[in-house]
Fold this protein.
Amino acid sequence: MKLLSLYLLVFNFQLHNASETPNVIGIWTCSDKDCKVEIYKNGNSYEAKLIWARKEIDEKGKPKLDIKNPDPTKRNLPIIGSKTLWNAQYNPATGYFENATAYRNGRYFCGKFKLNNNGSLTIIGYHCNFKFLKFSDTWTRVNTH
């Protein structure tokens, strides 16, 4: 009976750990180390904002404006500091944060991301209407919150 109780305890612990949401909250850098993104939780979903990008700084050292934004009211806003990802929800069955919408350079993308065993983050994105046109990147954590 003690052995059965031990098995049930171990199984319950493994089941509990499998359903826990991985901690992706924090600051991440892309593989080229030329951008930093902060991932945070907003309600039941995860969002991200761009906090630094080498390509989004002009020759005077100031953040570039989002002139390609489809929303004319946002074209005078700086790209750095803007929300770049929203609606990501963790799916314990796949281990991915799925159904994410991302924005970059005037375009919207769909995608998902996953925390790897080595602590890196695999990002998979695609044009929302053409899922076969995928791109991926691996991000490294800069710090956590």
Notes: The CA atoms of residues 58 and 110 lie 28 Å apart. Strands lie at 26-29, 35-42, 45-53, 83-91, 96-104, 107-115, 121-127, 130-144. The chain has one domain: 24-144.
